[in-house]
Amino acid sequence: MKHVFLTLGMVVCSLLSIQAQTTTPAAGTPAAPAAPTSTAEIKFEKLEFDYGTLKQGGDPNGEFSFKNTGKEPLIISNCQGSCGCTVPSWPKEPIKPGASGVIKVHYDTKRIGPINKTVTVTSNSKDGVVTLHIKGMIEAAPAEEAFPGNKPANGAPVEKAN
Hints:
alpha+beta; 2 helices
């Protein structure tokens, strides 16, 4: 019986000592300082690129110009298209305060139909993440325009004489 009370007493003391170590600061006590925030800022000329109406296989390239309006170098760590048909490329080197850059977006214009995609830009700017939008419409092109290798080199096909 002594062992049961001794064990129970040790468990209670352990629980009380654990609770005593996880205290919250008293009212009026200053909170711990927050992590320093970046002073880099990314400012885009526009957040949406409209391809308009393109023929299938048309110009697949769009651009988003931006400027670092902050006080420290801007570092773009990643740009991610919303699907595999939207492939962004971006400057890998830091953008100095006051300097500009361009994010290029390549869209697969072999796909027919409306374009409504996004590119997520992750950087050390105050905002952290910015979402860019691309839109437009891809119309089917005649077979000889969409696939130029399917037509004869010099015009009409030649018929053989019997």
